[in-house]
Amino acid sequence: METTVRIVGFGDSVVSEVLDSADGGSIDRIEIPDLSDFSHGQIDWRGRLEGAHWLVLSTSTILAGDNAKSAQGASMTFAEFEGPRTVMVTDIPSDPSRLAEAWGFVIERIRQIHMLFFTKSALSAIAEIEEMDESELLREIRLRGMTPQVIAFEPQENTVVIEHSLGNYSCTPKTATASHWLGKYLCELPLQGPGSEGIKNAANRC
Hints:
The protein is α/β, with parallel strands linked by helices.
């Protein structure tokens, strides 16, 4: 029986772009018309996350307001109990001066994140915040945070770099954008088996 990969997403436009690219997945998009003005208690996280493979979030979402930040924090806590693995997309917010604030949220909850994904611009900016070379940042974050996968999409070099708990892998993406690649990767990864071979096979299909 073929596995259907189920993905739950909450957050701003970058999350929607990932979900839109998850061809073949079963998508549960938590629609909030105004992230700056809603009651975070209205979301039944236990019900929405039960049986899901992935929970997709973004760093920028927490900057929409206290309710968005509380909802995102609650989703990560429920994900630990209900089973899906949390994917955090790190991107540049609409107000770039608040990136450090959004990154601070990630650092506080790094042990709850299974996959940390960087756009190229965000990787450069976080490297500056952390006062590290970009070439060292992914591996250092993975080691410090014990994050199973830390990934960077680098369109200029036409490369995806994956630091994972069993080593690292890089490949040439078949897709043009970071969100498109990640959406496909999330659909492929549960189907390709465990370990470094599963990561390699999933990445090469994206």
